[in-house]
Amino acid sequence: MSKSHPEQGLGSLVSNRRRACGARPGSPELSLFDDLEAVLGAGNVLRGEAAREKVHTLYYPVGTPLAVLRPGTTDELSQALRLCNAAGQPVVPFGGLTNLVESAHAQDMIAITLERMAQVEVIDTVNSVMTVQAGCKLQTAQEAAEAVDLFFPVDIGARGSATLGGVLSTNAGGNRVLRWGMMRDNVLGLEAVLADGTVISSLNSLLKNNAGYDLKQLFIGSEGTLGVVTRAVLRLRTRPTSQCTALVAVEDFEALPKLLEAAHRGLGGTLCAFEVMWGDTYRLATTAPAPALPILPHGHAYYALIESMGADQEADAARFETLLGEALEAGLVADAVLAKSTAETAAIWMVREEGTAETARRGAIFLFDVSLKIGDMEAYVRALKASLADRFGEAADVWVFGHLGDGNLHININIHGPAEDVRHDVEALVYEPLARVKGSISAEHGVGLHKRDFLHVSRSAEERGLMARLKTALDPNHILNPGKIFVIEGDGIAAPAH
Amino acid sequence: MSKSHPEQGLGSLVSNRRRACGARPGSPELSLFDDLEAVLGAGNVLRGEAAREKVHTLYYPVGTPLAVLRPGTTDELSQALRLCNAAGQPVVPFGGLTNLVESAHAQDMIAITLERMAQVEVIDTVNSVMTVQAGCKLQTAQEAAEAVDLFFPVDIGARGSATLGGVLSTNAGGNRVLRWGMMRDNVLGLEAVLADGTVISSLNSLLKNNAGYDLKQLFIGSEGTLGVVTRAVLRLRTRPTSQCTALVAVEDFEALPKLLEAAHRGLGGTLCAFEVMWGDTYRLATTAPAPALPILPHGHAYYALIESMGADQEADAARFETLLGEALEAGLVADAVLAKSTAETAAIWMVREEGTAETARRGAIFLFDVSLKIGDMEAYVRALKASLADRFGEAADVWVFGHLGDGNLHININIHGPAEDVRHDVEALVYEPLARVKGSISAEHGVGLHKRDFLHVSRSAEERGLMARLKTALDPNHILNPGKIFVIEGDGIAAPAH
Q: What ipTM is given for this predicted complex?
């Protein structure tokens, strides 16, 4: 059932790394470390080489933290945060360090890992909920659900490293958002610690609870700037027992939303992925040395991966075949193949996943993760390719693929030559046209350090002002992951530097 | 396709009405009304009888407001709120006045209706989103979606009166939460005005948008205490074209979660309602003078209404029959009937809906709307019946039914005799046992005035403190719907009065 999203290090993919953190680093009083050791135990306040090793990652580096704290309980974390808050000491919570926007960059700050709080605490099969600690890996939770014949639908490539605290703090998405939503839609309750040490335990396990404000929403997707998530109650689903996966070729962009609509209608609620690759990205992903095979011939304009999950393999496959037959007949689809085995399903998914891997092998690369309405996509991509060609000529390669059913496009751009110098120019070409079509600079990766200078593209001055109001209400000393998403100056959020 | 939830006035159902508002009413300076008239036009600042008529409702009365404002645009509302905020004048936004917890009680305050902002602004069929103004009726939006062959799944009995601003502010639920979620899960973006007049326009129409804090969450389910919702972007779905509805009889409570699980698995993602009535409630709802017929014989312990919606009537019905056959064979179900026509479907839903109507006809009644884990329900209901019998003997009738698949039970309690005197005793018997099982005092109706004294049953002191922090950050003068959900005193939320 599970797909192979091989985890991969980013290697040279550091081009949109930003070093300046906009934080307020400094050397805290030595007494703070003594106090932290008294709370956590000396072995859980790592310094020097031990701290550097703890934050080593194959993804974006996070700099050199002053120390790494390893609280073992919510209460220990609460005490540690209270000490840091009193000292005005910036702290950065981190999980699996697989973030793609440097949300956990911790240079000269105190980093906090919840690796000692990594348990699945309870699985309640009658009510289909699971209580987990934030340091628990996503894959561990998925497997614990499967072990009792249930299903946790959120899935990303980094499942084996990413922690639930991280995927909650960043509101992770993935390949099944179309059906089951983002992380926000799959969590019923959570526990978080505020900057001042207050423990907000909202471990609700009920599907419906309108007893006052839904406080958990504050901590989901706010990238650790409003509180540190310590535990959560996940909503589990019935485990699907059927899976149908097809790869289809499409000649005109206009056919894609029609095909998506036909899939929604024809598959009766079981559609769970609708992934699209632009034709040149498909060619790259299925040409040696890429390991994936060209399951359909090269030369079509677009390729879509369509997947359903249900409860009756035979009936679902028949329905899927009907859908594909009708789509071929209606001219929506030029060619199609429906997987007949688990191996064929894996081969189709490999094509989709090799999109990222192959583009990364071509040298320094900028990774983007935008969302916009399906109706705006074709023109946006065409204009982006034109503007990059204007600016960089032959030196720019643009690879487009993504979760089309969710409005989410991943755009990988190679610029041949010295990449760091052109980073801002490339970002501006990608992000600024999104303002006109009300697109988002981040569909699922978050803002972190990478996108904060472009937050104004997607969010108004009033929205940014309200974010600052919330930040200041919950973290008046601004110690929690400072400089991520935005930089607060005075009462509002600092304008972009350029 | 649509079901008959006849709208009904509450008639004598005013027993858990509370008159004291905990607000800070008073007589504002006359100049405030002059200023408001200058902004809105004299015809849109209603006083005296015109104001009283505007807030007339068959549901819970809302008292006599000082005035009713009728802004025609977001900007007019912004200017009006700025004036009220400067004057420290409490305001109460209201929609269709169908709320069941007096969330719009406006005695001696200024009430605000968005009835002049009632349009469906745009329907985007390519991206399946609809932009609406807050004064638009829920039913109007549902019908506008149907007109373009799309579907807005949130549905409640008061659809013809309730406005989208109201269902958003209260995070309404209804009969299809199991499949499509609450209102929160069906809105992509919204626009709201803060107490100081700041317009937060987060009219996102993207399924995935992680560009900073998800601000819309603040205004959903906060009952108008953090901002006034003015517009929203609703997520539309593919319109289901099949509907299968069954009524089944069940002898043991333990069989119900097993049947729910079998329905989830067997119906492959199309299950959208799992409603249960306790046996005596079924008998009442299907005995003359009730109009509903006893489709299955009286005498079983529980009756469940199970419904699926999909895309293939024949295949879905076959699958449903298989499910029922297996459930009969496994002994989960004692008897079952699957509707064979639209009329039979309506007849089954009438049984479910007559539960409320019949209990209301029996005189003064207290309506409750709790949620708790399915595994805790049977013992909770049994203990509640025992404690009510201890306290009231023969004078108490307890009627239980609800959205079992969502963990939500509606409990209607008749107390024969003078009802107002015993209101608090009944509430305490219903709510206090929920603390032990981590249940909620409100699954979907909200807190309003009715439940604020019991908020501590479901939310900790730290959670209530954070709610107060948010309230003060967004509405420092506490002018927005004051006294609803909680009463703020000093830095925190007032403890219950008893």
A: 0.93
